[in-house]
Amino acid sequence: MPDAARLSDDGGTMTDEATDLATLGEFGLIGRFAATAAEGSHTLTGIGDDTAVIDVDGTRLLFTTDLMVEGVHFLSSSADLADVGFKALVSNVSDIAAMGGHPRECVVSLAAPPSTPVEALDRLWEGLSEAASAYGVTVVGGDTSSAPVLFVNVALIGEAPEGEWVGRDGAREDDEVYVTGTFGDAAGGLVMLLEERSPGDVDEERLVTAHLRPRARVAEGAAALAAGATAMIDVSDGLVADLGHVCERSGVGILLDAGEVPISAELARAAPRLGADALGLALVGGEDYELAIAVPAERSSDLVARVEALGTRCSRVGTVVEGDTDTVAGHDRSDGSAGWDHFGGTEPREGAR
Amino acid sequence: MPDAARLSDDGGTMTDEATDLATLGEFGLIGRFAATAAEGSHTLTGIGDDTAVIDVDGTRLLFTTDLMVEGVHFLSSSADLADVGFKALVSNVSDIAAMGGHPRECVVSLAAPPSTPVEALDRLWEGLSEAASAYGVTVVGGDTSSAPVLFVNVALIGEAPEGEWVGRDGAREDDEVYVTGTFGDAAGGLVMLLEERSPGDVDEERLVTAHLRPRARVAEGAAALAAGATAMIDVSDGLVADLGHVCERSGVGILLDAGEVPISAELARAAPRLGADALGLALVGGEDYELAIAVPAERSSDLVARVEALGTRCSRVGTVVEGDTDTVAGHDRSDGSAGWDHFGGTEPREGAR
């Protein structure tokens, strides 16, 4: 089974050995905090899903936040801040989409060096406003500060239609796993940006755009909810890592058929020129902001029909299997197929979102 | 009238001359963004008040965010991150208090250098959790990243009781202006921290605590709402600056009787030893997180009774007067009484929150 890998994820360990943030990792830190977080009486879903779900007099509100830091999430030297503002909002909208909800209001925190040109900040605001307009989000407040590097934080409220939502925790054995769209384009675009390579053709242009201007799958998320999806996540950390998050929260494993992971024609054509492995980018490259969806087998044709009716590809990539995430931690590399190992595989990447 | 100064505020200008953030200033940047922000159909109050007010199926939710950046809002060299975490939450709770609401759920974004000791991050979380517990706030999610400096952002939802709230925009001519508590203690504590001076007695200890561990006036804010307050703001930027924000939003002036601004006995005793002017600290020192409240004269005794029933001092400090903030920009220094001029007066301070 050379194209399959058994996935699960320990979600970061609360290891006593970790002495600094680099050792602990992002997921370790979140796990450490979540373990001692107090539960709220109106909290239906707390830390650990794409968004929180809270009850407001019977309405189910979704609440999420995403942070972008210069030098970590974008390259200051080459970034048009309009792209940064756009993506800062879209990454939050994508989290709402992954619950099956629709976005509503946000607050924006912005910190920047005092020497930042006003024009650059105007561009950031333009990009953010463009995304807000595209997704029906209202910016209702914010905060600003000086800082040595640029920080943009968006906190977004959404609403779960008719009080229903899809978390990461409902995947069950024998469910099928589907994804929207294609994978690896954004990572291909990032390779180009890191190499300061100008797009040589329309394929390469498409990859850079996928990285800089992702879209959130709001309608597709709602369609998956309506189709009876049992678990859903937006793929921001990479497909393998994010499926691992579903495994962890659902207490299952996922048998991923890597050969079925959809790759765009543009990436397939451009990858060799970039010296990159398209499948590797598709499996572990992050920031595609596509959805991964678990659905009972008998509902899968309905899911596909609903998503494809939106003009979006919907592909089966795997199956949910019995698994115990306490004992099956990390992905199985024993078959030697882990072509994405050099990216760090399912291990938390330092500084990754 | 040597102890009075006429205040108003132009709220930052959208000056065409500003070429970078330092020139534009925080309030200039916010004004620039707010001028082009789209209005939302569920937005009852948007950018420019202590919090936004949004309608969620008839419930009025309050929504706010506050960020803290190492080297700007706290001194990395001396900070116990428990204090930073505590204050990051309290500054948000204070914004909810200034609307007369009560806080509910928050999301937290945290970015830190990879070398940050895990123990320090645990302390930050402990302080934040302590404040969350004290104010009945549930942490429901967050995001983390690496960054060159520590960055903490909290976004907080609150609720307006019975759909009522007090904004910054309702102050009317002849209203009286009251404040809770005392002013300048936090600034006195900051002077000590900046001079790396250890508290020499209980007075100095109290000032440092006021700076590091402010409390939010939630019950007092609710009391002011119940008493019929017309405008309210929490004093984080400094009394003069924040009253200026009320002037701007309400389209009025405020005649501040500086001699009536309450100063604690501790600050009065410690200020000479610090080489500081207690009144100056009280007028322009920020981060006291007390409330400033405009109230019709006939409701003022009720306001005082309600606030003092909570064990909190409530002092009259001024009167709302006719004013046109389009033409009376900046505070009037013509009487030569502006003892706080060396702090920057009502001008936006670069990098200040």
Please supply descriptive tags for the structure shown above.
homodimer; alpha+beta; 60s Ribosomal Protein L30, Chain: A; six-stranded antiparallel sheet; six-stranded mixed sheet; 12 strands; globular
Task: Describe the structure in your own words.
2 copies of one chain form a homodimer. By secondary structure, chain A is an alpha+beta fold. Chain A has 2 domains: 4-15 and 167-335, Alpha-Beta Complex (Phosphoribosyl-aminoimidazole Synthetase, Chain A, domain 2), CATH 3.90.650; 50-163, 60s Ribosomal Protein L30, Chain: A, CATH 3.30.1330.10. Chain A has helices spanning 21-36, 81-97, 118-134, 185-194, 202-212, 218-227, 239-250, 265-274, 278-284, 300-308; strands at residues 4-7, 43-45, 52-56, 59-69, 102-112, 138-146, 151-159, 176-180, 231-235, 252-257, 290-295, 314-322. In chain A, the strands form 2 sheets. A 6-stranded antiparallel beta sheet of chain A has the order 1-10-12-8-11-9. Chain A has a 6-stranded mixed beta sheet with strand order 2-3-4-7-5-6. Chain A is globular.
